[in-house]
Design a protein that fits this description.
The protein is an alpha/beta fold. The protein has two domains: 171 residues, Response regulator (Rossmann fold, 3-Layer(aba) Sandwich), CATH 3.40.50.2300; 195 residues, 3-Layer(aba) Sandwich (Rossmann fold). The chain contains twelve helices and 16 strands. The longest helix has 18 residues.
Length: 456
Amino acid sequence: MQKTSARRFGALLVGFALVGAVACGGDDESAPATEAPSTEAPSTEAPSTEAPAGGELEGLKGTTPLVDLSDEWKQAISDFWVAEGNEALNDWSYAAESFDAVMLIALAAEKAQTDGSALANEIVAVSKDGEKCSDWTTCVDLIKAGTDIDFEGVSGPNTLNGNGEPLEASYGVLNFGADNRIDDELTTFIPASAPESAVLPLASAGVERDGDGVLKLGGLLPETGSLAFLGAPMIAGVEYAVSIINEAGGVLGNPVEYSPGDSGDTSTDTASVTVDRLLSENVDAIIGAASSSVSLTVIDKITQAGVIQFSPANTSLKLVDYADNGLYFRNAPPDSLQGAVLAGLVAEDGNASAYILALDDAYGTSLANVAESVLADSGVEVLGKKIYDPAATSFDAEIAEIVAADPDAIILISFDEASRILRTMVENGIGPKSKAVYGVDGFIGNALGENFDAGK
């Protein structure tokens, strides 16, 4: 079991849409050492491709939207995934959110009695203010009896605001152990929520599209690209939910249909090609993308067609008030919440100064800005904030600036290039064994350790 004890580090108020969010903090059982880093200039030699002498990531900690998932549910979804011909799951990032996204869409279709765009008007409704239910059969039976429901998902309450994003959240604080993998025994959880003043009026679907009685879902999930490590848990979550619904009789009396698709990343047009195909297949809703920047490249195409886009992983603040025809939803909390939690950890661990290194995209810049603001409000001096090109072949210059700044803590907001950045940090004496290093959901997972050990 994962450890769930937590201690309160005090209230942090940050903007959540137009209001504040409160975060409370977790145990700090093994704060990384804060030895002075090497003052030597970063090496210009090509980094070694040999795995380091083990444990170089030990002490690295990071935040990700996560609740204390039950062992029973994790085993069930992993068994399903293996039965479908895949390897057992060992990362759970956004698996539960993906599962719940399907459930919310399907329950809304049952309530609206259509798979057309009008079902979007019921997604927020089934997420709150009714009789609580947590499994498909119970929720559907209540709907058929004319009862308003409040779906309590695997990923948490799933209480959605009028703009289709969460009012409540839970973050897991994941810690890397001596084997360069996440040590589940050290995981703690931090709740975050918005005050009642955050509640926005319901946005109705602005484009009418008729249904045909068959709920058709499309996937826009990362099979390739910089977030490919999230692909397996997210796809498994979607397909597991569809299987449960269909075993119970489907939606509107028909099996739910699912058409998978790759989102790639912003370096390709994979997402656009996938969306064109899914729209030609007359899907009613598209699950994804994982990347906020990818979603921003296709959201207009999807929502202007009267099709729902529901992301289990988008967090960028650019999507808070995006003109989406009332058809875009997400059950991953916005960066205003994660930024506060992340900054709270840095402050609670006793760091007097910090440096932020973030990738240049909608996710990286919005999260970096929130973290910077909350750190300053918490009395932590921000010695620098560097926005880097994730496609760069080397990060020597960025690491040299951090070495010169000599912060107590380093916040890394990254995707899969984090492995190469961390390797350069280690080579220059500012890795997790020498500095307090903090990461985020864009790369925190066992795939990071695998890539690091492999020299990738």
